[in-house]
Write a structure and sequence with these properties.
single chain, 19% strand
């Protein structure tokens, strides 16, 4: 019996050549930044086949890198059969257009385009998809002459960086139509954001203490959310595995209820267009009563990652919200590493979302911060106001509870937003 020949049906991963710039006094070294870029490329589904670096004090206005380096990049891409060249720094529209003219037959994209491409892959909710589409179109608008043309070209095909305006013909692409598309997306996004604002207003009015998780991408925020709340949020060992905010009920050991919200992870050189487009999602952090700044304790770049998060929190106006520094993945470090981190960050807590280590200390710290923001009151709640007693148990900390003829005597810590509900029954 003759065997049928076997054919490889899997589409080979796109081959990517990375280009990095080494600048003096940079927070991240070129090597560190390129390693992260490589992880981003892997998340996008491509394969890194080589890197090219250049030391520069100031970027070249025409092509970012020098003329000789452009020639080297083109030659290296040919030898390695790279289908896409990815620059670690954002290219101006002029730089990108010039590079496309100098390096023929290869897609040219930058770190921003790559991150937007990854967001397009991972956005699942309607709001998330709209936010990504808005950021993409805002990024593409000034690049229509060069970038959009090659992204829409059949000759270049699909792959990394090509999920911009998927399914649209090149004839549709002009500035007027892109601006119109941006306005349409903004209108649709405003409707979704209005619904989110209504939900947020209801949570604000409830007086429930709100805790938000913030941190560098892949720091383990979703894992921590799952452990603390028995949620089932997606956990995946890739950068930007989840984009949509997830809010779950967190119950403290004393029975007090609050909300815990996970949002999109941050990253160095986070595109400005993404920060603007995801503003409503990031408002979950800005409007929180407490931010848990989650750090990957096992990362060799944790200090730079922490600073990138702090910079982004300041950018979105959340730097004034109380923070608790949480070093996650402490099960992946040894005692000497832990001691070193503790010396640098004496207020930090060590936890493991995998094993549960340190969770009791974390919950105690959350309770401590919540109590510090509360007002101690003693109130006599009439028996026909049972809903108020239920509210006290759910959203306040009940210190003591007694029963008298006049009603239920509660001594409790009340969040500022709820003090008006209990004031009519306060005992002098």
């Amino acid at each position: 019996m003759t065997k049928e020949p076997m054919f490889e049906t899997a589409v080979p991963a796109e081959r990517a050549l990375l280009v990095g710039i080494e600048r003096p006094f940079a927070e991240w070294s070129c090597e560190e930044s390129l390693l992260e870029l490589e992880r981003l490329v892997d998340t996008a589904g491509a394969e890194v086949v080589g890197t090219v670096t250049q030391r520069l004090k100031t970027p070249n206005t025409r092509t970012l890198v020098g003329k000789g380096k452009v020639t080297e990049i083109a030659a290296t891409a040919t030898v390695l059969k790279a289908g896409v060249i990815i620059f670690d720094d954002e290219l101006t529209p002029t730089q990108q257009s010039n590079l496309e003219q100098d390096i023929k037959g290869v897609k040219i994209i930058d770190r921003t385009a790559l991150i937007l491409d990854i967001f397009a892959l991972h956005a699942t909710s309607r709001e998330g998809r709209l936010q990504v589409r808005l950021a993409q179109n805002q990024y593409l608008l000034p690049r229509l002459r060069g970038m959009w043309e090659h992204l829409a070209s059949n000759r270049m095909g699909g792959g990394v960086g090509s999920r911009f305006g998927e399914g649209e013909s090149q004839l549709e692409v002009d500035r007027r139509m892109v601006r119109k598309r941006i306005e349409h997306i903004r209108t649709e996004l405003a409707k979704v954001q209005s619904e989110r604002a209504t939900q947020r207003k209801a949570r604000l009015g409830s007086g429930i203490f709100r805790v938000a998780l913030a941190g560098y991408t892949n720091a383990g925020k979703s894992s921590l959310l799952n452990f603390l709340t028995d949620a089932n949020a997606l956990v995946y060992d890739k950068l930007f595995a989840t984009l949509d905010s997830t809010t779950r009920k967190l119950v403290l050991p004393d029975g007090r209820e609050m909300t815990l919200t996970d949002t999109v992870g941050f990253i160095q050189k986070l595109p400005t267009t993404l920060v603007e487009s995801f503003k409503s999602t990031l408002d979950e952090i800005t409007n929180a009563d407490l931010i848990l700044h989650v750090v990957d304790a096992s990362s060799p770049h944790q200090n730079a990652q922490m600073q990138a998060v702090l910079d982004t929190l300041e950018q979105i106006g959340a730097h004034g919200v109380p923070q608790v520094l949480v070093f996650n993945k402490c099960d992946a470090i040894d005692e000497s590493q832990r001691e070193l981190i503790a010396q640098r960050n004496p207020q930090g807590l060590f936890v493991s979302a995998l094993t549960g280590q340190g969770s009791e200390e974390l919950l105690a710290r959350i309770e401590q911060v919540a109590n510090a923001a509360s007002v101690v009151m003693k109130a006599c709640i009439p028996f026909d106001k049972g809903a108020l007693v239920k509210l006290a148990h759910e959203s306040c900390t009940v210190i003591s509870e007694e029963y008298e003829e006049a009603g239920t005597i509660l001594q409790l810590r009340v969040p500022p937003a709820l003090t008006a509900r209990f004031e009519p029954y306060v005992q002098k």
